[in-house]
Sequence to fold (160 residues):
Amino acid sequence: MTGTTVLTRSADETRDVGRATAGLVHAGDVIVVAGELGSGKTTFVQGLAAGVGIAERVVSPTFTIAREYVGSVRLVHVDVYRLERAQELLDLGLEDLADDAVLVVEWGDVAAGYLPADHLAVRLTPGPGADTDERTVSLTAGGPSWGARADAVAAALDAR
Fold:
C-alpha cells in the first residue's frame, strides 16, 4: 500500500483534496473514508462530488445510509456508522453498488472486511485544539488499480 499525506487548514482545503482526487476516479472505484466524528469525512466527499461535476448539495447519509448523485460518473455515498451488525452491511450489497459507480463509504474502516481490497483509503485526523479546522488527510492506495494510481494521487494533491 502506497500513501500520501497532506495538511489542510480549512473545510475548503479539505474539499480541495476531494476535488483533486476526483480527477482520478472512474466507475467501479471504492473509496473508504475514515475518521472520528467531525473529522471532515463528508467535507472530503463534498469536494470529490464537486470534482466529478455534481452540483447537488452533498450531505452525510448517516440516517438514510446511502445517497446517490450523478455527475460525470454516478457516485454512491454510504455511511455505515449506524449499522450494528455485519449482516446489515451484507444486506446493503456494497459490492454491487460500485459496479457502475464510484462507491464512497464513510466509516469504511468498520466495513473494511466486506469491501474490496482494491480501494483508496482516506483517513482524516483533526488537528490539535477544538477550535481549529486543521486536518491531516492521509490517502493510501490499496490493490492493483489504486496502486497503479498512487503516484497520480500524490501528484494531484501536490498540484492543488
The first helix runs from residue 11 to 22.
